Please model this.
Amino acid sequence: MNESGALRSRGIQRIADPRVWGTIIGAAGATVFVITSRGVLAEPWPLIAILAWAAAALAYVACVFAVSRTFAAIEMVGAAAGFVYLASVAGMLVVIRLGTLALDHAGKSDLRPALIVLAVGLHFIPFAAAFHTPMFTLLGGVMGVLGSVGLALGWVWGEPAAAATAVTSGVVMLVVIAADAARGAGVKGGQDRSMRDR
Model:
């Protein structure tokens, strides 16, 4: 541990840390996106999808749990963080429900996977400020764009476009989480140099 309270460790040794166990929820959701939607794709895309997921999942496990990285001291979240979380989840569920009704009314219920991607992405964005985790801005923004594109393309080309969006989003979620953890793996050198320069 250095003067700032940062600690070098592997994620598997810090399962109780929300920066570790919290990623498990995201990884599970990403896996659901891929597994439930890949079967809609034409051959050979279901196989490609599962291979891409496997590679991303391996990177996730390695970067989050196995590779030693720097964990800064946990910042205290504001009193409103719990409200932000609950409001974001509630908003996501409302968007999914109302969006599903709209899609059903338009005869486009098979586009629901893209709608869910959009809703999940948007619900991540407020977490960035509430939980001092900038990754949520990138993740939420990318998923929001993918979900919107999936709905637009799906409106023209049907269910496969929405399914492709869900599969892509699942892989992207794992990659973004892994990349965020990997950045912590490269912090040590810079910290050591800054300590020597003092």
Notes: The mean pLDDT is 88.
